[in-house]
Design a protein that fits this description.
Elements (H helix, E strand, L loop, with lengths): L2 E6 L5 H10 L7 E8 L2 E8 L2 H4 L2 H6 L4 E7 L14 E3 L5 E9 L2 H10 L10 H16 L6 H14 L2 E9 L3 E6 L8 E8 L2 E7 L2 H6 L3 E5 L4 E6 L4 E5 L11 H6 L5 E2 L2 E2 H19 L7 E4 L5 H11 L7 E3 L12 H11 E3 L8 E6 L6 H12 L4 E6 L21 H4 L2 H8 L4 E3 L2 H9 L11 H4 L9 H11 L6
Parallel strand pairs: 16-19, 19-20, 20-21
Antiparallel strand pairs: 1-4, 1-10, 2-3, 2-4, 5-6, 6-7, 7-8, 8-12, 9-10, 9-11, 12-13, 14-15, 17-18
Helix pairs in contact: 4-5, 5-6, 9-10, 9-15, 11-12
Length: about 500
Amino acid sequence: MCGVVGIVSKNEVASDLYEALTVIQHRGQDAAGIATSEEKRVNSRKQLGLVREVFREHHIQSLLGKIGIAHVRYPTSGGASRELAQPMYVNSPYGISIVHNGNLVNTDSLCAELAETDRRHLNTNSDSEVILNIFAHELQQIGSIQPTKEEIFEAVGRMQSRLSGAYSIIMMINDVGLVAVRDPHGIRPLIIGKRDEDLMGAEYMIASESAAIDALDFKVIDDVGAGEAIFISKEGKMSRSKSHKTANHSPCIFEYVYLARPDSVIDKVSVHKARQRMGIYLGEKILSLHPKHDIDVVIPIPESSTTSANEVAKKLGLPYREGFVKNRYIGRTFIMPKQEMRKKSVKRKLNPITMEFEGKNVLLVDDSIVRGTTSKQIVEMARDAGAKKVFFASAAPPIRFQNVYGIDMAATAELIAHQKDESQIAEYIGADWLVYQDLKDLIRSAKEGNKDIENFETSIFDGEYLDNQVSDGYLENLEVMRSDSNKI
């Protein structure tokens, strides 16, 4: 999970890119970067840290140009280093920069092809650099002195024929324009906005979430389609091309559970409304399993679960109370790379309001349970605050399998649901009972927002991967890489 932004404007874009990154900061806390095109020059700034830490006013002033791209990155098993921050850049041809959200599943074979056949050198183990070099190679084979949109689309098609996995990317061709591409499954989101259109062209923005587009007063006009390529010239003219590589549109359902902001709309599905439906269906399941429950109050684990928890409370006919105060200056514990950091951050991030727990039987609602250690701490907090009984409900089904499409959540062995059944998980986290959302109801929660989407990417719940290149060997290697003991 990362966040990407690209803008073509009639004015300097650096400040707009900065503002957009602050809106999608939740998608990555490890590093941030901006690159702009100023006639024949590429200006860039990237560094480890939050957006507000990476950029100062003098940085923004130095990032001249009316075309630009930007990125926020979240920690992965590769560790934190400036060389992995984005945008990434390659000099030949033309000068091309890239920002990428997702993960390829055939990186190793592509690295070998680039070295042995394409004769291109890679500086990192990043699949984003692989994508950049493949596109650069293909464009160099066919591009003229100033590449046309037809040549760009042909290069994209050749690139897509070589890639497997998830990629929502924006590339900036120096003094030419922006190219946005989404993989043929459309796993990771990518959305287009437009403003200030006249006879000479328009200003365009492409971003991971519509909330960023709204914040900068662009009007959302569409999602980048599954397999689609978008070219926006520096003059503000947009062209679209559908990939020849066909696949079923299968957006990641975890975007609606946790990753995206509630005020975003992804693939025409409101994240907020999807979470409301999750709460309704979860409440119905709780009533069917525990019709004679003795719950006194429903309390969410802020913030991704608040919308679902409110609907659970309505369905159960119970009071909804916000019993935890969240420290908003602590990052998202889910995307912290090591367990020690996550454990310390839970205590610093959440503090219970004792009066909401004292002498009550409470139902805690969270968006999902990954390793279970955070849930265990939260249940302990509730009991320490005076709760008589603590029940737990998850708006998502049990997470049992690795994600290979850009969410570096955990090694399979560290997933609590991979090791235990629901009663064992309840015992481990210290809850009196535990209820998970059914997968069919989770899918229904998202699908009801856009019935044209026939499939969702749900591999973390059912182990069904969209690419045949996700072999047992690939998963075994990923297991080693993602183990907490292997992270730096």
